[in-house]
Each structure stands twice: as C-alpha cells, then as structure tokens.
Amino acid sequence: MPTTCLEFSALNFEFVSDFGFRASDFKIKGSSMNLRTIIPPPARDPAFIWRAAAFFVIVALLLFVPAGSIYWLRGWLFIALNVILMSASIIYIGRVNPELFEARKHIQKGTKRWDKILLLFLSGSYAAVLVVAALDDKRYQWDPQLWRGVVFGWLLYAGSFVLAAWAEAVNRFFEPGVRIQTDRGHHVIDTGPYAVVRHPGYVAAIFLAAGTALSLGSLWALIPAAITSAIIVLRTALEDRMLQNELGGYKEYAQKVRFRLLPGIW
After folding, report:
1. If pLDDT is split at 50, 70 and 90, which confidence band does 35 have?
2. CA distance 137 to 74
3. Is the pLDDT of residue 215 over 50?
4. 44: Cβ contacts below 8 Å, ≥ 6 apart
5. Do the domain assignments include residue 2?
6. What torsion do the CA atoms of 161, 114, 185, 175 make, to the nearest 10 degrees?
7. Following DSSP, what letter does each residue of 174-212 receive, concatenated?
8. CB within 8 A of 248, min separation 6: which ones?
9. CA–CA distance, 27 with 240 (Å, rounded to integer)
10. Residues 149, 217: contact at Cβ < 8 Å?
C-alpha cells in the first residue's frame, strides 16, 4: 500500500538541514530539548542527508533551468514549502512510525517488475509537471495566473502531505514499491484513512501532482499532472488486484471498505 514515487518521497519527500553544527549547540533556553531530540535518528544519518540534498538539487534544476532564471519567486516559494512540509513530516513519522525510514530507503527486493516500470513513468511525468510549470509561469508566461490560484495550490499540496503522513503513521508497510512483504509480516491495515478508502497514499499523490502545478502558477502543468494521476490510477488497480490475490484477509477488507480512491465512486 505504498504511495507513488512521487518518491522524490508520499510517493516521500524527506528533508533535514545540516549546517555543520552539533545538535547540542541548539538547546532551547530553559529546556532540555535540542535538535537531537527533535530530529529522529534515521534523519541524522549522513546518507539520508545526502539523498535529501540530491532531491532538492534535482528539483531546483527542473525548475530553474527551464525557467531560464533563478529570479522566480513562485519557484523559490515552492521549494520553501517543501522544506517546511518535509521537515514536519520527518519529525512526525520519526515519532509515530520510525521503522518506516528504513523500509522506504530504497525499492525493496521482491517489488513487482510492472511496478518498477510504472515508477519510471511516474518519475518522468511528475518531472514534466515541474518543467512545464517553469516554462509557463516564468519563461514564456503562456497563461499567467493570479496569486489566489497559487495559494489554493499550496493548500492542496499541504493537504496531500497531511493525508500521506496520516497513512504512513498507521501503515508500517508503506514501502515505495509494490510487493507482498512476507519478510515483515505483511497484513491488512484497516485503521486511520484506510477505514475510508483502500489506497489513501495514492489519493495524496494525486492531490500532490495537481497541487504542484497550481503552486507554481501553471494551468498548463495540469496536463502532465493529469498524466501522473492516470498512472497512479493504473497502479492502484494493479496493486489492488495483486493484494486481493496474494494478501490474506484483503478480500474481506475490500468487502468492508469498498472504494479504492474516491468514496462513492471507485
């Protein structure tokens, strides 16, 4: 029941800053709390920090190279929004479900071959959202949008993080790839958002794709966002079929929670 790799990550975006100081140097006055107690241990791992830094470098390149300029306010605000949301997500998941850091570190052995192919297409389609938005809003200004549309995009984008974090908090099997996790005692999760729809992580990913386009002020970028969403719907269908065939108790769960993504529709 993973999210997509908008795994630049519902599917799972993770970030932590490192300015070269010891966490103990930042003790809050009058309290024993410091950064070492706030930031979960997996997020202090140098490899984790390098992956997070690489993610932001890639996002910056996908935004500012096609924009043709680094002087693009909406692009920088989008990056700042990601820093805030990802930092909050890391701290929250580190407290309620810390084992997820290890599980989501990479695509695990046993991930379905079809899912690896879909993840490549998802990565490409989401990258296209960033590129098209940069071309539209900054470089060529095909269809300039008002700031109220951008603010709506921020709210949609933030909402996707909240939903994804909720799903990750209750689902210890929230890996980036689709597989039956027999090595981890895989079983059905039916609490939290999973009591409403069977794949809330994918709902969050669809919101994230649309929120990205709107946060960057581009209606044209909704086209690759729609393609991203279509791939997510396909992945949902394939994963759900696999779970019904291979995961004990899932058929009964599917009878209880009838809808995959949209209550009352599908």
Report:
1. low
2. 9
3. yes
4. 16, 23, 36
5. no
6. -20
7. --SS----GGGT-----SGGGGT-S-HHHHHHHHHHHHH
8. 187, 188
9. 47
10. yes
3-state SS class at 209: helix
Structure tokens that stand for 206 in this block: 């669809």
pTM of this prediction?
0.86
The CATH number given to whatever domain includes residue 139 is: 1.20.120.1630
Q: Average pLDDT of 124-129? A: 98
Residue 49, SS3 per DSSP: helix
Length of the chain: 266
In a domain, 107, yes or no: yes
Q: Let me know if residue 184 belongs to a domain.
A: yes
Domain count, the chain: 1
Which residue shows structure tokens 């997070």? 52
Reduced to 3 states, what is the DSSP secondary structure of residue 187? coil
Domain span at residue 164 reads 23-256
**For residue 17, is it within any domain?**
no
